[in-house]
Design brief:
This is Flagellar biosynthesis protein FlhF. Keywords: Bacterial flagellum biogenesis, Bacterial flagellum protein export, Cell membrane, Cell projection, Cilium, Flagellum, GTP-binding, Membrane, Nucleotide-binding, Protein transport, Transport. It holds the Pfam family SRP54. With about 400 residues, the chain is α/β, with parallel strands linked by helices. It has 14 helices and 11 strands. The radius of gyration is 24 Å and the shape is globular. The longest helix has 24 residues. It starts with a strand and ends in a 5-residue tail after the last helix. Helix 7 packs across helix 14, helix 8 runs parallel beside helix 9 and helix 12 packs parallel to helix 13. An 8-stranded mixed beta sheet has the order 6-5-7-4-8-9-10-11, sandwiched between helices. A 3-stranded antiparallel beta sheet has the order 1-3-2, sandwiched between helices. The relative contact order is 0.12.
Length: about 400
C-alpha cells in the first residue's frame, strides 16, 4: 500500500500530479486546504493538499472466475458482549472506568469520522516506541481486529470476504503498529476493493442506448426516472424513455407519467426488432433509456427475451447495461440473480432501497463476486432526489461501524 500527499493550487491539479506519478488507479483518501507559512504568506495563494492511496500490484485483488469460486470454511463468529466498550483513543483501546453506555455508540464512529487524521498520524509516526507500549498495542490490536471482524459480519459482509480482508491486514500489520494503522489499512483496502464508481458515460458518437435490467420489484422504473431527471434538468441532455415491460401495464403507465412530467418522448417496445427504428428516430438525442421487464432468474423464456432485446442494439448504437438490485435481497438470492444476468451480458450495478436496510454488506459481497462496477444507489421514492453516485468511502465507513 502506497500513501502519499500531493499539493496543487486546486484539487484537480493535485490529483493530476498524483496520477502522473502513481497512475490512474489512485484513491483519494483526504482533501484539505494548506495555508502558506512565513512573512510573505499574504502574497501567496493557498494550496490544496490531497492524500492518495494506491494498492501495489502484488496486493491487488482480482475477482475469482466462476470455476474458481469455492466457499472456504470460516471460523465461528467471535462474540463480545459490548465490543465498542473496549475501544478508547489512538493510544489505548480499553479504559474500564469510563461510562459504558456513552462510549459504546460513539468511539468507533469517532475513529471512522477522523480517518484522515489517522492517515496523517500514520505518515508522521515515529519509527520507534517503548517496548512495553509495543507489547500492549499488539495485544489490543488483535482484539480490535476481532471487533472490526464482528462489525463487518453484523453488517452482513460474508464470512469469506470478512476473513479475506482481515487476513490481508494481518499480513501487513507489524507487532509495533498501533491499532490506528489497522483501522486505516482496513478502510483503505475496502475502498480499493470497491473501486471507482462507474456511472453512465457520455456517448462518443450519436445516441447511446441504456438498458436497465433486473428482477421485478427492485425499483427499475423509479430509478430510470431519477437518472433521466438528472440528465434532463441538470445536464440539459436530450433523453427519450422506452419500456419493453409489456407484462405489467402499471409499469408502462408509470414511466409514461414520468415522461409527461419531464416532457420527453415515450414509447412502448413490443418486439426487439423495433429498437432499430427507435434509434433511427432518436438519432439526434443523447440517450435512450430502456426499461425492461423484470423476471425471475428461473424464467428461461423471459431471460431469452431480455437477451434478444439487449443485443438488438448491437452495431446500431453505443450501449450500456445496468443491473438493478435491491439492497434488501438475501445474499444467496442475489448470487442467483447476478449469475442469471451474467449469462446475458456484461453490466454495471445499481443498488436500490438502501433506506430499507441497516446492513450494506451485500454491496461489497456482490462487487467482489461479480467484479462489476457499482454506479448508483437509491435511498427512497422521491424523484429525482433519492439517488446518488455510489460513494465507496461513505459505504466503507458504514460497514466498519461509523455513522454517515
Amino acid at each position: 500500500m502506497i500513501i502519499k500527499k500531493f499539493q496543487g493550487k486546486t484539487e484537480n491539479e493535485a490529483v493530476e500530479a498524483a496520477k502522473r506519478e502513481l497512475g490512474k488507479n489512485i484513491v483519494i483518501m483526504n482533501v484539505k486546504g494548506v495555508k502558506k507559512k512565513g512573512f510573505f504568506r499574504f502574497f501567496r495563494s493557498d494550496m490544496v493538499e490531497v492524500t492518495i492511496a494506491l494498492e501495489e500490484e502484488n496486493e491487488r485483488y482480482y475477482p475469482l472466475r466462476k470455476e474458481e469460486k469455492k466457499e472456504s470454511a470460516s471460523p465461528s463468529k467471535v462474540v463480545y458482549p459490548s465490543p465498542y466498550n473496549e475501544i478508547q483513543n489512538s493510544r489505548s483501546l480499553f479504559v474500564e472506568n469510563l461510562d459504558e453506555e456513552k462510549r459504546e455508540s460513539t468511539l468507533l464512529e469517532e475513529k471512522l469520522d477522523n480517518l484522515h487524521i489517522l492517515l496523517e498520524q500514520q505518515l508522521q509516526r515515529p519509527e520507534s516506541e517503548k517496548v512495553e507500549e509495543e507489547e500492549a498495542v499488539h495485544s489490543e490490536l488483535e482484539k480490535f481486529t476481532k471487533i472490526l471482524y464482528n462489525t463487518m459480519l453484523d453488517n452482513e459482509v460474508s464470512e469469506k470476504n470478512a476473513n479475506q480482508i482481515i487476513d490481508e491486514i494481518e499480513k501487513n500489520v507489524k507487532p509495533n503498529m498501533p491499532f490506528d494503522y489497522a483501522l486505516s489499512s482496513i478502510y483503505q483496502k475496502m475502498v480499493l476493493k470497491f473501486g471507482k464508481p462507474a456511472s453512465i458515460t457520455p456517448p462518443e458518437n450519436g445516441v447511446k442506448v441504456i438498458f436497465f435490467v433486473g428482477p421485478t420489484g427492485v425499483g427499475k422504473t423509479t430509478t430510470i426516472a431519477k437518472i433521466a431527471s438528472k440528465f434532463i434538468v441538470d445536464d440539459k441532455k436530450k433523453v427519450a424513455l422506452l419500456t419493453a415491460d409489456t407484462y405489467r401495464i402499471a409499469a408502462a403507465e408509470q414511466l409514461r407519467t414520468y415522461a409527461n412530467i419531464l416532457e420527453v418522448p415515450f414509447r412502448v417496445i413490443y418486439a426487439p426488432e423495433e429498437i432499430a427504428q427507435v434509434l433511427e428516430n432518436f438519432a439526434d438525442y443523447d440517450y435512450v433509456f430502456v426499461d425492461t421487464s423484470g423476471h425471475s432468474y428461473q424464467n428461461e423464456e423471459q431471460k431469452a427475451n431480455t437477451n434478444e432485446l439487449i443485443h438488438s442494439a448491437d452495431g446500431l448504437a453505443e450501449k450500456e447495461v445496468f443491473l438493478v438490485l435491491s439492497a434488501t435481497t438475501k445474499y444467496r438470492d442475489l448470487i442467483r440473480i447476478v449469475d442469471s444476468y451474467s449469462q446475458v451480458t456484461d453490466y454495471k450495478l445499481i443498488f436500490t432501497k438502501l433506506d430499507e436496510t441497516s446492513a450494506m454488506g451485500n454491496l461489497l459481497n456482490i462487487k467482489l463476486y461479480t467484479g462489476a462496477s457499482l454506479s448508483y444507489v437509491t435511498c427512497g421514492q422521491n424523484v429525482p432526489d433519492d439517488i446518488e453516485e455510489f460513494n465507496p468511502q461513505k459505504t466503507v465507513k458504514k460497514l466498519l461501524g461509523g455513522q454517515n
